[in-house]
Amino acid sequence: MCSPALEAVGSRMEKILLEIYDSLYKAFGPLHWWPGETPFEVSIGAILTQNTAWTNVEKAINRLKEHNLLSPECIRDIDINLLGEMIRSSGYYNQKAKKLKAFVDFLFLQYEGSMELMKETEMWTLRHELLQVNGIGMETADSIILYACYKPIFVVDAYTRRFLSRHKLIEEDAGYTHIQKLFMNNLPSDVAIYNEYHALIVQLGKELCSKTLPRCNICPLFVVITPFMGFFLAETIGVEETETEPVEVE
Ligand code: SF4
């Protein structure tokens, strides 16, 4: 059992994370993730989106669809060089063709090529299995588990790490698992919340909390994490707290 002091820290974090969620949702939500018509398409998208913009992934997925190749059987049977050609727009296409092949090989070996059967597996067991597949790391595995299998796991990405560390809620070099636990230990275990929360963080990262020029003066989180803002803004980017107001972003 937690000590009262630890419980207090936990509930404070819970409150902060829920306030962040509410503010981002008011500004950007709902975002209706993940873009994809089937669990298999979502899984393919999760692999193809590694190190590239989503627009490039969309082109690759559309090309696969145009050629009626977006099924486990077709990805398994197609020549790997031709597959690479089909997904060229997503970048690193030779590597990604291998990764797609590895994923469908796993799907057939373990689940008869059926996403429905895969979805029946217990969440942490499935995560362990996916992490054994060549080219599937934690972020990709968790994206598949959350968005294709509808299981309550929190997806962490570079945007998540960036905004949390800027607000001193984590160390800059905090690991994936540490950040994931921060959310999963302090939020309800809820697929809909985890789905929307990650999508909102991605939107935040793309629109406001960029790597080089965070737009804190129009960010909905500006006042939400007040105790951390003064330090961050004064010490790191020199924005005057008193001159800025949060606004909602269309
Ligand atoms: S207030 Fe600034 S640092 Fe914080 S999330 Fe918004 S843009 Fe990023």
Automatic annotation (TrEMBL):
**Highest taxon above the source species:** Bacteria
InterPro entries linked to this entry: DNA_glycosylase, HhH-GPD_domain, HhH_base_excis_C
Q: Which residues form a coiled coil?
A: none
Q: Which GO terms describe its molecular function?
A: 4 iron, 4 sulfur cluster binding; catalytic activity; metal ion binding
Q: Which UniProt keywords apply?
A: 4Fe-4S, Iron, Iron-sulfur, Metal-binding
| Keyword match Glycosyltransferase | no
Gene Ontology process terms (BP): base-excision repair
- Keyword S-adenosyl-L-methionine found: no
Question: Which segments constitute the HhH-GPD domain?
Answer: 48-207
Q: What is this protein called?
A: HhH-GPD domain-containing protein
Record organism: Candidatus Desantisbacteria bacterium CG2_30_40_21
